[in-house]
Description:
Elements: E1 19-24, E2 31-36, H1 41-49, E3 60-61, E4 67-68, E5 77-78, H2 79-93, H3 100-103, H4 109-117, E6 128-131, H5 134-147, E7 154-158, H6 163-176, E8 179-183, H7 189-194, E9 200-206, H8 218-227, E10 231-235, H9 247-250, E11 254-257, E12 271-275, H10 319-329, H11 337-358, E13 365-366, E14 378-382, H12 386-395, E15 398-399, E16 401-403, E17 407-411, H13 419-435
Parallel strand pairs: 4-15, 7-8, 7-9, 9-10, 10-11
Antiparallel strand pairs: 1-2, 3-5, 6-12, 11-12, 13-14, 14-17, 16-17
Helix pairs in contact: 1-13, 2-10, 4-10, 5-6, 11-13, 12-13
Amino acid sequence: xxxxxxxxxxxxxxxxxxxxxxxxxxxxxxxxxxxxxxxxxxxxxxxxxxxxxxxxxxxxxxxxxxxxxxxxxxxxxxxxxxxxxxxxxxxxxxxxxxxxxxxxxxxxxxxxxxxxxxxxxxxxxxxxxxxxxxxxxxxxxxxxxxxxxxxxxxxxxxxxxxxxxxxxxxxxxxxxxxxxxxxxxxxxxxxxxxxxxxxxxxxxxxxxxxxxxxxxxxxxxxxxxxxxxxxxxxxxxxxxxxxxxxxxxxxxxxxxxxxxxxxxxxxxxxxxxxxxxxxxxxxxxxxxxxxxxxxxxxxxxxxxxxxxxxxxxxxxxxxxxxxxxxxxxxxxxxxxxxxxxxxxxxxxxxxxxxxxxxxxxxxxxxxxxxxxxxxxxxxxxxxxxxxxxxxxxxxxxxxxxxxxxxxxxxxxxxxxxxxxxxxxxxxxxxxxxxxxxxxxxxxxxxxxxx
Length: 450
Ligand SMILES: Cc1ncc(COP(=O)(O)O)c(C=O)c1O
């Protein structure tokens, strides 16, 4: 899916008046008829007018006619990134050439960008670095954590966690002779802990589930895991920049996260990896490259890990992407995370209320937790024809995404998303459902990316 392929939407008229609707009572007692004051578009406009975070939208380049509810997959382009990457291309690479490794500070950038990002995840500046992809970092910290608990033979993970996590955790288990134990998705702390005991070396969870948006109680799980002497890894792919995260308060051991989602670092932006300072000198990671070496330019034949978080580096970072991420992070200096979270929650509630009002009657169900405290910054709706419906939505300029078997995902990136975008997205979905526009062969064809 590319933004360039999206056509501008055609203007539509919006309902702004209270209307009489027939809907099914929540108790399941059958249809009831009532005068129901639907949330109007004007209400969404009022929310935008009072939004304390609204001005951040001006820092982004967003195409006209697009309602972008997919910042949970690929964040929008910050204006500052264009300038910074252009400078790196033309001046640092084009003119200074290899001298930029020293003169422009390229060599030290992973640690500096990690330190810049650290406050967003409740880490100390020297506890975060930027390297590789989330997948690769997960593998590094998983093996390192298992090695820190010799004699323990189990890894506990959610059965339906993001597929790459499962693949890499299974491989880490194969290499370290440990066994992967799964718990059901969305299990409560008691159910999780029934699978965790003194045989457990490491527990790895995704903080916010990529499908349902369910957010796990980080502090409670981490504390329970520590109580049996195991280590805790958090996958923050759908958390960093989306919800307040405090790894130090939770006493988390390791964490990994994405640069290209809510942080707006651009397609393929490198990942961040966190290790609690208390573990740094014990980290024995399985991909010991020269960027994690204590003396990289001595080119010694034997690996000697760098002190601190640097040892989680491996090979040469993708500099242009790293620079883009660095520039994207500048925006966060002035972001009030409490206000950001409040807006994200309010957007989730707006979407859920609108779905209840206008979409449940068409066979949609809300597949995300209704309690804001249990939800990240996305809401998923389930419908058997979800795939075609999402393609029809995208065709009309409302961009979300689809996750099999039936989930339409809508992400809220509060820095640039407006309440009216949420309202219009639901209005679009109602429209394509009521007109049957989604039921067209061109919306049934799967591209490589859904
Ligand atoms: C929860 C989760 N973990 C890990 C990843 C993998 O990230 P990457 O492909 O950058 O390695 C993703 C990607 O979307 C994800 O959503």
